[in-house]
Amino acid sequence: MSASAAPSSALLTDRYELTMLDAALRDGTAERRCVFELFGRRLPGARRFGVVAGTGRFLQLLADYRFGEEELRFLRDHRVVDADTLRFLEQYRFTGTINGYREGEAYFPGSPILVVEGTFAEAVVLETLALSVMNHDSAVATAAARMSVAAGGRPLAEMGSRRAQERSAVAAARAAYIAGFAATSNLEAGRQWGVPTMGTAAHAWTLLHDTEEDAFRSQVAALGVGTTLLVDTYDIAAGVETAVRVAGTGLGGVRIDSGDLPTVAAAVREQLDRLGATATKITVTSDLDEFAIAALAASPVDSYGVGTSVVTGSGSPTAGMVYKLVARQDAAGGWVPVAKASTDKASRGGRKAAFRTREGGTATSELIAVSDGFERMATAVDHPEARALQVTLVEAGETDPAALGPDGVARARRHHAEIREELPVKALALSRSEPALPTVFVDVE
Amino acid sequence: MSASAAPSSALLTDRYELTMLDAALRDGTAERRCVFELFGRRLPGARRFGVVAGTGRFLQLLADYRFGEEELRFLRDHRVVDADTLRFLEQYRFTGTINGYREGEAYFPGSPILVVEGTFAEAVVLETLALSVMNHDSAVATAAARMSVAAGGRPLAEMGSRRAQERSAVAAARAAYIAGFAATSNLEAGRQWGVPTMGTAAHAWTLLHDTEEDAFRSQVAALGVGTTLLVDTYDIAAGVETAVRVAGTGLGGVRIDSGDLPTVAAAVREQLDRLGATATKITVTSDLDEFAIAALAASPVDSYGVGTSVVTGSGSPTAGMVYKLVARQDAAGGWVPVAKASTDKASRGGRKAAFRTREGGTATSELIAVSDGFERMATAVDHPEARALQVTLVEAGETDPAALGPDGVARARRHHAEIREELPVKALALSRSEPALPTVFVDVE
Description:
The structure is a homodimer.
Chain A: H1 15-27, E1 33-40, E2 50-51, H2 55-63, H3 69-77, H4 83-90, E3 97-101, E4 106-107, E5 114-119, H5 120-124, H6 127-150, E6 156-158, H7 166-178, E7 183-184, H8 187-193, H9 203-208, H10 212-223, E8 228-230, H11 236-247, E9 253-256, H12 261-274, E10 281-284, H13 290-295, E11 303-306, H14 308-311, E12 321-329, E13 335-337, E14 351-359, E15 362-371, E16 387-388, E17 390-395, E18 398-399, H15 405-422, E19 439-443
Parallel strand pairs in A: 6-7, 6-11, 8-9, 9-10, 10-11, 15-19
Antiparallel strand pairs in A: 1-5, 1-12, 2-4, 3-5, 3-17, 12-13, 14-15, 14-16, 17-18
GO molecular function (chains A, B): glycosyltransferase activity; nicotinate phosphoribosyltransferase activity
Organism (chains A, B): Microbacterium invictum
Family (chains A, B): Belongs to the NAPRTase family.
């Protein structure tokens, strides 16, 4: 087992969540039932669709959200909250309900991705953690989906761990896999989430040996002729020649990590074919993003390795989602829709239910029904092909186990592949644009 | 205590590090002594200086880098490595030496931030983890330092946890503090790293109550008149009036999270003064970056809260550092400087020692002495004011304890404040530019 115990997830929280809890426990509002919604006001990076990711991670962290001795001692010693609040936190369990989009689902501005219902006390403290997880993972998945579109049927491997914080890297590998990547270099993502892992050798491997040929011979001896040899440490043409000489024409693949890739890939393909290595695959891995991938569509490339751009959301490292109180009980127990009024950050009060309308199987709008009341709305709207987008993720504190762990990841990946089929063609273009579907709000009751 | 044990740090690693290890154990090169260097080819985002951060976190993760049962089982079940390699990993301890820049130090293109010496086997497996930590934390610190410069003497609070993966958020709070921020909203950063925490209330607090006045009264009752009230949920002028009426002219502060900040801050200051609340402070928190902070220099603002831009490195979420084999033993035990030859990613072989030359106390260059040999070079160069930049962080596997934990963070923050004084004035400008100091390589021996 590992040497150190995990810090609890409970303090992965902004201080003001606990300060508000503290004051609410004093004035009695802590027990008011509330509806909080997690949504994005816009899509990251003027994309045409967003991809929901992180749901399964958030639900696991929620299940583990406990204030233990160490956390309580910190809050006491630093006088963050008073003794009553410490007692409340010691007993904290989320007993409310969370409805939301399936992981892997497409989303648009205003989509109610998570709808959290519970007392103010139990729901407010989840704001920071829910946003941290969903903002990061959805930003990565949204970028990864575009790369997957750009790659056509060619497989993509995520290999950006070194360009992301060490735990973000695991989450990023998971999110990219949900959005269509085939594998990751990150071993922990393999262990924890069941993402297939890949990788053979770096330049250091070649440099460690007295000659490139020594390095290739040793790698083939250890990993077999099906391995992929990195051929660009010194001179690519000489590297390819040595690779085929050492491994034979059955060599699995060569990797190119530098140079002008369209030119280099064409030359390497021509050389491999000339040497008889017609089945040897070419993988390229040098600073690729969705645009570079698209530009290689006509090149003889068999697979792509993507690093920095996918783990940093290709220019949009956070999805910018917010977690807002949209409805609450008043002192008499009646329901009140609430929203901030400021002009530049206004939000829409009232509980939401979301549907994707379709025509002939193709999505036409994100239809969001808004209610002033608390009762759940009908799960159907008056539209022949509307699909309800929300499912129950947590019911009275109990999490749907199918959303958790590697099985949840596999399910999210399948769901994403399915729903991508219903997106209109214009959603798949790479250029900056408006969202591919309009968000339509409809008041009900 | 927390509910779940930490996954070990050992699998926060690209698969190819272990594949190379596996092959090296078979061919005997695993025992060759090596020097790896961690450096950036350029500064993130065309900045004028970089800030080293993450060192203390990396050293802690290195001390905890152990392959436990779970990790070994994963590697065995997925046939990542063979039985000999599993035995090696089970016993793995880093026994080498790491010299490097102090945490908080400025760096420039080519600066040898970490120099890792050991066998190939023990040093190669650290590549991914070292880069994940240093690339993320240094990107945040580099952005944070510019914000700190832009803020002049006004305090900055980091409050971007919700826009970063939940564990990145803790690392980002730590890095921003090292680079000059005064506090964070992130409670775990307070517990784990000793960063001062802050925060009072969100819009949800006001919306939870039947009136804004109820919310303010309750907050003042819980936190005292010294608290900061968020005044922009409905109408700012009405909010300020209510705030002073409720708390009195001794109100600690008001926070503004929307609107055109120079205009709004001036109006709020005028209103507060008119109401007699002349000592009440104004803090602003709406989508600030270094440029927005600089633009508020003439506005009556007392402190800044910064979210998204600092935790995402203000456009450069990763520092782009690499970890390269620069020297190794050959079969006969002699030392060979090595480097990749490809034109677009060439690196410079040979062991490096780094100095900052100064004139009259102001830094003039990053002087890097390059040696073909393995023996450590003299820690002085022929320059009257040169300062040696590298210190011993790990000696024969033993980590300098002063670099670890909250004490290490406090030390790094002091060191950063000190070295910022020696940077030339042009380093402090915000516009895109060349690095403020030239990097000068000098061959020795």
